Amino acid sequence: MTDFRYSEIFKSIQGEGFYTGTSSVFLRLWGCNFECRGFSNDQPDRHDTDPVTISDLNDLPVISHGCDSRYSWAAEYRHLSKLASADEICTEIGDRFGPFCHQNSGQWCHLVITGGEPMLSQTAMTSILDSFAAEHNLPRYLTIETNGTQGLRPAFRDIITQLYQSPDTELYWSVSPKLSISGETWDQAIKPDVVAAYAEISQTGQLKYVVDNSEQCWHEVETATREYRAAGVNWDVWIMPVGATADQQHKHQEDICQQALKRGYHFSARVHNWIFGNKPGT
After folding, report:
1. What is the pLDDT of residues 158-181, one digit of tens each?
2. Does residue 123 belong to any structural domain of this protein?
3. Strands, E assignment, 102-164
4. What is the pLDDT of residue 271?
């Protein structure tokens, strides 16, 4: 039986975009094709902590410079990750949080598969969804949080087609294209044809950009969005202020919100930051 590497499993609210406030179980898979060293970071080699001194993910302070989920892909944090089979992952989620349809409220908790970059782990996601279906605990609502650069693999496409084509289910693509403030290059980060292939198997989704309110950033939002639209991706656009912490976001969020409204986009705070402080497990 194959084991898959993941960083954490937790229940919280969705803190960003269309489903903000929705009860969600998060499965954070391991690995990413980007580093995003540029976010809130004028010193690209700056680190907030020495990972060697951390033996438990719960002891990790908030990473406030560069990628705030660095612990889900960087080699120096690999000792904090876990290995488990698809069946073991599904059993842990069921044992800790119960069925996705809550027995008290009758409302559905969403499953959010995030990272890192979960589309690097399509074999894992295929096996996990197959295991949930076998246990009769398939989440009705599935969100995949992705940077939108990894093409669909046939086995993953097949299981999504099998499990998420009924009107009673939903696969929601939350695509966060990385603009230049992330430190990643345009050619590597903006892949309209890849995201168009996502939209072919599920038309529900969003484009979610992190911005710093510079003219360059807004120009990139407009340019990227035109390219996605030309490829047939007509999802709504959400704008978020750069910053891993509430204090970092607060510096620019009012101006960014006003600019987003002026340009016709939705604005999203990162609500989990304001409530929980963006700690691991939230």
Report:
1. 999 999 999 999 999 999 999 999
2. yes
3. 110-114, 141-146
4. 84
